[in-house]
Amino acid sequence: MKITITVENPTPEVLEKLLALAAMPAAVVTAVADDHWTPERARSYYDRLPPRAQQILLQIVEGEGECAAEQLKANGRSLRGSTGAFRRVLSEGKRTGLWPEALPVPVVSHVVGGQLKKIEMPGHGTEQYVLPVFAAGLDELRSGD
After folding, report:
1. Interior CA angle at 102 toward 97 and 105, to 5°?
2. Is the predicted pLDDT of residue 145 greater than 50, yes or no?
3. Cβ–Cβ under 8 Å, residues 130 and 103
4. CA-to-CA dists, residue 47 to 2, 50, 86, 144, angstroms
5. Cβ proximity of 52 and 45 under 8 Å
6. pTM: predicted TM-score of the whole model, two decimal places
7. H or E stretch at 136
8. What is the DSSP code (8-state) at residue 112?
9. Within 13 Å and on the Cβ side, how many CA atoms surround 15?
10. Which of 3, 67, 85, 135 could form a disulfide with 53 if both were Cys (CB 3.0 to 4.6 A apart)?
């Protein structure tokens, strides 16, 4: 039997009782950091973004994890203020307890010489790469359902 317990901001008393339970003979305790995006979290994050940032996020997912700034600015579209929403929404979610503090930022901007060159999902090739999770979480939006 496997039991999973999630405790956010435990009081010292609760933490003491949990540690005592874990110290019982034959107890096997594994601590797993809650630092991964899930499809549900990805969708919740998307839903909290302003409309232009939502469009950008969908373009990044469609672009297999990255999108050139010139493509994002096509048809005269501005990026002013849009990219800051990614960090702001994540910070607000962490502050309000919606997401864990260890959750990494899912989208980063690459600026070269003061010019935005591309926006991408960091961590390609690692377990922290969020593209598959965001693709699953935003699948119904991408397929037009």
Report:
1. 95
2. no
3. no
4. 33, 8, 12, 16
5. no
6. 0.75
7. helix 131-137
8. E
9. 5
10. 85
DSSP per-residue codes, 62-102: HTTTEEEHHHHTGGG---TTTTHHHHHHHHHHHHTTSS-TT
- Mean of the pLDDT values across residues 88-103? 93
Give the C-alpha separation, 129 to 104, whole Å: 10
Helix axes 51-62, 84-95, angle to 10 degrees: 110
Q: Which of 45-49, 70-74, 98-102 has the weakest average pLDDT?
A: 70-74
Taking a C-beta distance cutoff of 8 angstroms, is the pair 104, 117 a contact?
Answer: no
Q: Which residues, in sequence order, are CB contacts of 32 under 8 Å at separation 6+?
A: none
Rounded to whole angstroms, how far apart are CA atoms 112 and 68? 12
pLDDT (0 to 100) of residue 39: 95
Tell me: pLDDT of 57 over 90: yes
